[in-house]
Amino acid sequence: MEWSLGRVRELVADGMQSIRDCESSAVGTAACLLLLFLWYCYRVGREHGSSPLRGRYGAESGHLRAGALGGAEAAGGAKAPPGSLDEQNGLAYCQSAECFRCTAPGEGLNQRLYHSLQEYAKRYTWSGMGRVHKGVRDQGRYLSSRPTIQRPEVFFLPDLPSAPFFSRDAQKHDVELLERSFPALLAEFGNVYNQPPARSGSPLPPGWKANSTPHGQWWTYYLVNQGTPLALNARRCPRAWRVLGQLRTFIANNVFGNACFSVLSPGALISEHYGPTNVRLRCHLGLRVPSACELVVGGEPQCWSEGSCLLFDDSFLHRAFHEGIAEDGPRVVFMVDLWHPNVAAAERQALDYIFTPGR
């Protein structure tokens, strides 16, 4: 039930009059407690939505923007010149001087993170913030001293168990849900992939983005890009959007969260690179997987499998390639970012606050 502030005030006023009328009675005490409880529920409801994705579908249909990490997470992806708009997916490229990934790491970023953490603690609590506080306080040292095999570009949470690949049991519910959704996701991919080009002379159907690669083609179709839903794309993929809403650990409220279809053409290579943080696990659900396709994370190779999920920590150095021939067709995965299982609920809430898109 949703009440306006005016309605709540009326209820409080009526209740206070009732309390004055029977000030000495137990009824007055009970009414007071009830009204305090209603006011608390109202305030909590105003600050926290019931679902991470609730109300965000189509919320920016007329003005879609990139998250605070920039226009796309593609390694080496080119940025558009200021003021330009990528007409292929309606996504305005990041133009903010506050962009975490587009500005050089340093004291400026560390100070902003620390200021955001202090704001969060004043508003909520310092309880459970030990690792987050330690990470924010010493972020510059962590990022510069990490071994070359694992070096997140933006934020490192200390004392977090790490490995290149994780067992499917690490996020069992969400992995099983994605795998049960394999037929629906595959069909929806076909719907958006087999559309005619968005404009004359472009090879890309509506909503798709071409990423920079040394050779071959790498296309992505984002539903959520760095914590920001792409309303036009989401409308074209209602079943995929529904699946995202059912995931328990999808990172929906901060810049480290993404969801997309990812396509590698035969002969394509995604160069070695690091992800922005170790607080997430990247999940790939194989949709179409020809032979000679491989993902290498932290020096460990793995192959995708159709209908199955791969969980990996993309803060490790990683690359992907498709060495098949043209007749093999593309490699296709549905990619989502899930919370690392050892990031506690209080830490997730704080990180959502600190890394809110646009902060």
Description:
The longest helix is centred in the N-terminal third of the chain and has 22 residues, at 26-47. Mean pLDDT is 80; it is low at 42-50 and 58-100. 36% of the residues are buried. This protein has helices at residues 5-21, 26-47, 107-123, 130-137, 139-145, 172-180, 182-193, 231-236, 238-246, 345-354; strands at residues 165-166, 209-211, 218-225, 228-229, 259-264, 269-273, 280-288, 293-297, 300-302, 309-312, 318-322, 331-339. The chain contains ten helices and twelve strands. Helix 1 packs antiparallel against helix 2 (26-47), helix 3 (107-123) runs antiparallel to helix 4 (130-137) and helix 3 (107-123) packs across helix 10 (345-354). The strands form two sheets. Strands 1, 2, 3, 4, 5, 7, 10 and 12 form an eight-stranded antiparallel sheet that branches. It has a four-stranded antiparallel sheet with strand order 6-11-8-9, with no helix packed on it. With 359 residues, the protein is of the alpha+beta class.
